[in-house]
Amino acid sequence: MGVDGPARPPDGANQRQLRRGAIGRRAGSGTNGGAGRPRPRPGGQRSSARTWWPRPRLGVEPPPAGSPPPAPLPPPSMPGRALPVPAPLLLALRCLLLGGAAAALLPYGASRGDRRLPDGDDESSGAVRLRRPLPFYEKRFGQLFVRTNGIISTQDFPRETQYVDDDFPTDFPAIAPFLSDIDTSGGKGTIYYREDDSPEVLGQVTHLIHAGFPSTAAAAFAPTHAFITTWENVAAYEEVSRSLEPSKKVNTFQAVLAYDDSDTYALFLYPPDGLQFFGTRPKESYNVQLELPARVGFSRGETDYLKREGPYYSVTSNEQSVKNLYQTSNSGIPGVWAFHIGSTSQLDNVMPAKVGEKPSEERSLGTLASTLSSSPTEQNVLDADYPDEIIDYAEPFYDENEDDDIVYLPMGPTVVRRPSVLTCAFGAVFTYNPSSKETCEWNHSQCSQHAFCTDYATGFCCHCLPKFYGNGRHCLPEGAVHRLNGKVSGNLLVGQTPVRFSAVDLHAYIVANDGRAYTAISHIPQLAARALMPLTPIGGLFGWLFALEKPGYENGFSITGAKFTHNLKVTFYPGQETVQITQTADDLGPENHLSIKTHIQGQVPFIPENFTVHIAPYKELYHYSHSAVTSTAHRQYSLTLGRINRTFAYQLHQNITYQDCAPARQRWAVPAVQQLSVDRVFALYSDGERVLRYAILQSQGPARIGDSPCDDPGPVNPCYDGTHACDTTARCQPGAGLAYTCECTAGYRGDGRDCVDVDECAESFHRCGHGSVCINSPGSYRCECLSGYQLVVDRHSCVPIPPPSNPCEDGRHTCASTDRARCVHHGGGSFSCVCLAGYTGNGHNCSDVDECAEGRCHQAATCSNTPGSFSCRCEPGYHGDGIQCTPGKGSWTMCERWRQSLLEHYGGSPREDQYVPHCDALGNFHPLQCHGNSGHCWCVDESGREVQGTRSEPGVPPPCLPSLAPPTVRPSPRPDVTPPATGTFLLYAQGQQIGYLPLNGTRLQKEAAKTLLSLHGSIVVGLDYDCREEMVYWTDVAGRTVNRASLEPGAEPETIINSGLMSPEGLAVDHFRRTMFWTDSGLDKIERARLDGSERRVLFDADLVNPRAIAVDAVRGNLYWTDWNREAPKIETSTVDGANRRILVNKDIGLPNGLTFDPFSKLICWADAGTKKLECTLPDGTGRRVVQNNLNYPFSIVSYANHFYHTDWRRDGVIAVNKDSGLLTDEYLPEQRSHLYGITAVYPYCPGGKVHLVY
After folding, report:
1. What is the CB-side half-sphere exposure of residue 592 using CA atoms within 13 A?
2. What CA–CA distance (Å, rounded) separates 872 from 880?
3. Which of the 8 DSSP states describes residue 1232?
4. Where does the NIDO domain lie (predicted)?
5. Is 933 exposed, middle or buried (0-12, 13-18, 19+ CB in 10 A)?
6. Angle at the Cα of 1106 (from 1100 to 1108), degrees rounded to 5?
7. 784 near 770, Cβ under 8 Å?
8. Residue 37: helix, strand or coil by DSSP?
């Protein structure tokens, strides 16, 4: 490689490589030194010449140069085999294992195969199947559930309000390292979980358990599996408030469940300063200044069908005890808490570790007697208020002459000052810092392809690989020629003449290995070009960026990379003209060309034609601070023409701002002052070419006070002054004295004096992947995608270009609003617009059809036109449906009223398969009733009730037709219940069936949706659930009944109300009072009855026009309902026995279809198909607010956790709306598309609360 000068000696350091390449290398690691095998490089490669520290996991910086390696430890116990360890040796082992440190977290994250819990306020992992059952208390469980709120269970969770704001015990099995109202929505932290059986992790867990249980049967415990859950930087739930800034406090903690076939031990790990908040405020009383401390402990839950309280164990009882979690422990290691929580042998309750006192000869491992309660059922072990600073320390455990770090344990409660890094015996380093929010694991793609990523205590940074330089995000090959492109714009006053130019071309060429920079600005007006010749800083910026570096100093690009802003202010003398120059670098282009935008604004002196500009060599001092470089200088220049020689000057102030990498500031220090030495500089304007040129030769090095041209600096290595003979595409490597070698830069090969381009494409040195083509370029190559493909982030791989989106779905269409038109997709980007029924136009503009003007109603009826529809009502003295009116003063018959009610329910236009009662000329029920023209028919009696056994299929006449004998066999499908899975789910009504849609947290598990119950011939509208008896209740407007069915397998529907109904719609169940309420829009009534149909009575039958939705606050005993009377819509309320009736809302509402009571916020919320809004108000009608103002056509709505779920008649699906943001977060569209009606939420447990009985 080298040709000029002797070969470098071993200690002849390549300075740039020392600065950028040997990150984390120990000093003196060039050889083994007889110390055994070198440590492997990250990634598993070994080097015979270098010893590498393991790559940090979370912000760990490698030890400083010269630091000894961690002391070796015995290998971990393997599963199935454990040897007893003497107590003193165990204590020494614990000190060695933890280096005197407190709790650090076991390794976690995506790289360890962890799964992530979805972001949100109350999310669940769903059932995590374990490879073998886990003992908990006296039972064994094959699955675990992880919840956002710092809790793990062996079964799915009830609603959040049933446990998150209550004290222990819970009524379900619970393992709670930090039970509180945690919220990870909006990127506020991450929750990881996995099951692990690797020897590395099991060994670490075993040591920690043995440290806490040294003298019991646990000393022989060797886990075969571990379940690890990590809450990283999670935040407390906060109610949105404009007046308060959101808290920035976050917590990090970890729970480890280690188990074998017979026992389970739990470890709760709280790293130093990992807990920044200690409790949360309950949602139900968020405006009250009340904060509940986090609960830490274990609960067996209810143990039998009598729901008797099982055993439980509490670690904390107040805020101070929560604060002590990371300062103290029960294992002798601050922040590490160990518990025996399950066994196949007798275990009455959780058994905590009891190590915390200073060992003595008589008792090497003691107990935290002062902090442990003796209660067999509930123990609070952290109530003591330990001081933070005043701590008495015991004498060291080791001989004072030993070289190892001495670990001091305090007297009394175990509070240890410790470093934040834990080095384990298994060759991995882990740490935690509460400010660590970004790591290489998720952000390495931000680094250049020629860089590596390093985690530091407060974040990650990118660093260029050896033989490259830059700031890590942008790296260029050392020694290579660089090109810059850009545009220049100006608004100048030259003398007194204004000159403007815009986006003229700038090109620069830099020979980095000798510090030469050439700049050319094309097509600039002659007057401005001559006046700008003295302003060499325009091109001087590029010289500073790529200046030749002297040892220990760095040029500009090594600091700023390819994104920065250069501001320059120049004041000319003697005329005091001032000009401002701004140069902005955007990024590196595909060919690694830097892109620069330059803008020049101000006044410059006039320079006559034919004068030349001379600028003498100069030196400038640049001052460096974080994210900024400044320089101030006074520079002279001469204008010459023949014998004329005049000298002028200008003062310049430069400021270069950029984004440095804060986490590495201490490690990547730049000298505070560097000197830029410009040895040659010239400026020239060519009239013929209309090109302004600058040429500069400069280098970067130390500041020399008092330098003068007469000083003799002594011999300078040719690499530092550019006098070497290396090729322009080679790096000059300085040796001793004046010796040097030449080495072709990356992408070139040769002897260093002569280098030729390597064709990476032809020689298969490229990394272009599938679907891409390699294109060679000088010193490099690029990957271009084939037709139909596009590059991904790594710029090497190509993926197919996705097909064009559907404009009808992504909103790019130009059709009228969805309530007036529909968009029809024709493939690609093509679509057409069609007006809906009841509207006319070209689809882009649709206007309402006035059916009244077309005479659709009977001449004896009053017609009312509505958007997209119309209605007819017979005038006084007539009766009928408005389409047909017959004389007579009598009121409508039952058949006619029901027919009119259903027609209004269908919006005036029923589908061909929907049921509309068939009335004869006298208004009585026709004996034959059918679902439109579907062929599904049945017989009815004079009251319209179905005659059992008369249902017929299409093509089979029913027996109620004249002269037709009843069929002998009439098989019909049995409407059995298909039982749902356990957990929380939604039920929705869809015509003749009730659908099941499970939730994972608050996410819709659409792939698991199915039909719960098929009800042929029904139209299910209202829907609710009794959580006590696990029964679903519904109204059927086709059968005019109220029904119910158990969710047990094979259960059949039961009709509980079958008389006195016309059009039963909304339904609400009060599980406390065992009562149900329903609305009847045909009879304009609101009724109530016991859940078995008994004790039925009318609550209201006056001042109602179209009652629809109904909701009950069972805890407070209040009832709410909507009336979508088009002339005066309203929402009303009363007590559950009908007292204190009053209007809650009657302003700015249109068609309030859906209504729900939100138990979290105690708000009554409604979905309005007229105003298209989802709104909420307090039970007294105050505090009204809009959650969403762009709904389609909502019908029914239910509240669960931090979401609303509503059925929609435009989308024919279930829509999820976030309560806090109002965003539509998800939707489920059943395969069978038809209108969805009622919706309700079903969860494993009934809501809690005190009942306000009103009987």
Report:
1. 26
2. 10
3. S
4. 177-344
5. exposed
6. 80
7. no
8. coil
The amino acid that residue 406 corresponds to is I
Cβ–Cβ < 8 Å for 1075, 1094: no
d(CA 1054, CA 981): 22
Q: What is the pLDDT of residues 299-316, one digit of tens each?
A: 988 654 344 557 888 888
Placement of tokens 């701002």 in the chain: 657
* Cα gap 90→858, rounded to integer Å: 97
- How far apart CA 967 and CA 256 sit, in angstroms, is 68
Q: How far is CA 1012 from the centre of its chain?
A: 33
518, burial (CB in 10 Å: exposed 0-12, middle 13-18, buried 19+): middle
pLDDT for residue 424: 34
Q: What pLDDT, on a 0 to 100 scale, did the predictor assign at position 704?
A: 61
Q: Does residue 1087 contact residue 1094 with C-beta atoms inside 8 Å? A: no
Which own/partner pairs from 519-525 qualify as long-range (CB within 8 Å, at least 24 positions apart)?
A: 519/693, 519/694, 519/695, 520/691, 520/692, 520/693, 521/488, 521/691, 521/692, 521/693, 522/689, 522/690, 522/691, 523/690, 523/691, 524/488, 524/490, 524/690, 524/691, 524/692, 525/499, 525/501
Rounded Cα distance between 1018 and 1040, Å, is 9
- How far separated are the first and last CA of the chain, in Å rounded? 99
HSE (side-chain half, CA atoms, 13 Å) at 138: 10
Give me 1096's structure tokens.
Answer: 């039925």
Nearest CA-CA partner of 1111 in 1239, 986, 987 = 1239
Structure tokens at 1052: 């059949």
C-alpha–C-alpha distance, residues 101 and 367, integer Å: 20
In this structure, are residues 191 and 146 in contact, taking their beta carbons and an 8 Å threshold? yes
Instruction: Please report, to the nearest 10 degrees, the dihedral formed by the alpha carbons of residues 834, 838, 841, 846 taken in order.
Output: -90
Q: For residue 851, give the 3-state DSSP assignment.
A: coil
The SS3 of residue 314 is strand
Residue 452 CB neighbours (<10 A): 19
What are the C-alpha distances in Å from 1208 to residues 908, 1129, 1239? 18, 20, 11
Cα–Cα distance measured from residue 304 to residue 763, given in angstroms and rounded to the nearest whole number: 74
290, 200, 301, 186: which is closest to 235 by C-alpha? 186
Beta bridge partners of 1204: 1199, 1217
DSSP reduced 3-state for 869: strand
Q: pLDDT digit string (tens) for 1226-1244?
A: 999 998 778 899 999 997 7
- pTM (2 d.p.): 0.36
For residues 677 and 276, give the distance between their C-alpha atoms in angstroms, rounded to a whole number: 51
247 secondary structure, DSSP code: P
The predicted structure's pLDDT at residue 480: 79
Question: What's the rounded Cα separation, in Å, for the pair 1187 and 364?
Answer: 62
Tokens representing residue 219 in the block: 């000393």
CA distance 848 to 869: 8
Query: CB-based burial of residue 157 (10 Å sphere; 0-12 exposed, 13-18 middle, 19+ buried)?
Result: buried
Q: Which tokens sit at 1210? A: 């435009």
> Mean pLDDT, 10 residues at a time, over the chain (1255 residues)?
37 35 33 35 34 31 41 38 42 40 79 92 90 90 94 87 75 92 91 94 90 76 94 88 74 95 93 88 54 88 56 84 86 90 82 60 29 35 37 31 32 31 32 51 80 83 86 86 89 92 90 82 90 88 81 83 92 92 87 88 92 88 85 90 90 90 71 82 85 84 56 71 84 86 89 91 84 86 85 78 81 87 86 90 92 86 86 80 73 76 72 79 81 80 80 74 44 49 84 90 89 86 92 92 88 90 94 94 94 94 94 92 90 95 94 89 91 93 92 92 91 91 91 88 68 39
Q: Where are the beta strands (DSSP E) in 716-818?
A: 730-734, 740-744, 748-750, 755-757, 772-777, 780-785, 789-791, 798-800
Q: What is the C-alpha to C-alpha distance for residues 1035 and 1041, in angstroms, rounded to an integer?
A: 6
